[in-house]
Structure formats: structure tokens, C-alpha cells
From TrEMBL:
Biological source species: Brevibacterium siliguriense
Cited SUPFAM superfamilies: Trimeric LpxA-like enzymes
Keyword Acyltransferase included in the entry's annotation: yes
Name assigned to this protein: Serine acetyltransferase
Superkingdom field: Bacteria
């Protein structure tokens, strides 16, 4: 019991220290705004903080990624990332590079490999894998551009590049590059330009986010 109280006190102290650092509170505020913008079920910030395991995994990753930058921190970061996986259902390797306003909805069974690179304003649904196809210790995981949506169950494998403003359909298996402003659906995924008939782009518009959703899935193959 004493050990649990000590761990809790340490966690509270670490959180208080983190929130006191410049930029951390602003980032947290941005994250909470992202939850409300991405998920219409998000009612308030308190619910978002305590009940969104995807956000917990992302917050943990930010700290572990910094730890990973130091040789002495690689083993602790890797071990703690496995604890985060157990607690949240999301496995993000501490070596992965992730941009701002990243969101994982219905977080469960998500895997993001070591050399993955994810841009800003990216959204993943449950059961998504950003995996490798090689045992070589080189770049072997996907690079995801800005303003990309990845539907439930999609697998993006190997060092492929998914361009900005693209959408990956539910359960798609992507093994080749996806051009910007495209959608990819099927197994293996077929890439095609996004519709030009006025359907909303996947690009997030922060200034008008209260007026329209960021992601309108115009193609039934993308529905989640």
C-alpha cells in the first residue's frame, strides 16, 4: 500500500512539474480542443482527461520520446511504453515521431512502430497498425503527412509515404505510397484522387472547426 501511495505521489509531482514548464499547458489545452473537434461525443474537458485512453497514450509518448533521445533512457523508455500499452491498449514505440494535434479515437489495438513519422492534425481509429516489413534497423515504418485520416482496422506497412490531406479506408492494407489528396481503400489498397464535388477535405481548419467537422467521409468505403 505504501508503494502505491508513493507511486501516486510521484505521478502527481511529475504532473505538477510538467504543467509548470513553458508550453506544456498550451499543448494540453490544444490537445483537449482537438478531442472536442474530432469527437462529437466529447462533452467537456474533464471527461476528455479521464476517459480517453488515446490521449493518455499520446501524453505518455511525448515524455517517453524525449527520454528515448538519450542512450541511457532507451531501455527505461521502452519498458514504460509497454506499461502504457497495458493500461491504454495503444502501443507507440518511444522512437516514433508524432506531430501536433494527433488524435486516436476509440483507442484500442493501435500499434505505431519505431521509425514511424506522423505529421500534424492526423487522426487514427481503433485497430490501426503502422508496421514494418523488414527486420533491418533502418527506416522501416510509414511516414504519414499532415491532415490524414486512417480508418478503423487499416494497416499501413513498410516505409511508405501517405501524402497530406489523404484518407485511408477502414480495413485497407496499404503497401505503396499514397499521393497527397487521395483516398486508399481495399486489400491491397487502391489509391484514387479524392472526390472534387465539394465534399469536405480531410484538412483540419482550426479557425472554422466549430462550423463544420474536420473529416467528412464522402466514400462509404471509408466509413468506420
Amino acid at each position: 500500500m505504501k508503494a502505491l501511495w508513493a507511486a501516486a505521489a510521484t505521478a502527481v509531482g511529475a504532473a505538477a512539474y510538467g504543467l509548470s514548464r513553458p508550453g506544456v499547458r498550451e499543448t494540453l489545452k490544444e490537445d483537449l480542443e482537438t478531442v472536442k473537434r474530432r469527437d462529437p461525443a466529447a462533452r467537456n474537458d474533464f471527461v476528455s482527461v479521464v476517459s480517453y485512453p488515446g490521449m493518455h497514450a499520446i501524453w505518455a509518448h511525448r515524455g517517453l520520446h524525449r527520454l528515448w533521445q538519450h542512450d541511457a533512457g532507451k531501455v527505461p523508455a521502452r519498458l514504460m511504453s509497454q506499461l502504457v500499452r497495458t493500461l491504454t491498449g495503444v502501443e507507440i514505440h518511444p522512437g516514433a515521431e508524432i506531430g501536433r494535434r494527433f488524435f486516436i479515437d476509440h483507442a484500442n489495438g493501435v500499434v505505431i512502430g519505431e521509425t514511424s513519422e506522423i505529421g500534424d492534425d492526423v487522426m487514427l481509429y481503433h485497430q490501426v497498425t503502422l508496421g514494418g516489413t523488414s527486420m533491418a534497423q533502418t527506416k522501416r515504418h510509414p511516414t504519414i503527412g499532415n491532415h490524414v485520416l486512417v480508418g478503423a482496422g487499416a494497416k499501413i506497412l513498410g516505409p511508405v509515404v501517405v501524402g497530406d490531406n489523404s484518407a485511408i479506408g477502414a480495413n485497407a492494407v496499404v503497401v505503396k505510397d499514397v499521393a497527397a489528396d487521395s483516398s486508399a481503400v481495399g486489400i491491397p489498397a487502391t489509391v484514387r484522387p479524392k472526390r472534387k464535388d465539394g465534399a469536405a477535405s480531410a484538412k483540419a481548419d482550426v479557425e472554422t472547426s466549430t462550423k463544420r467537422p474536420d473529416f467528412v467521409l464522402e466514400d462509404p468505403a471509408l466509413w468506420i
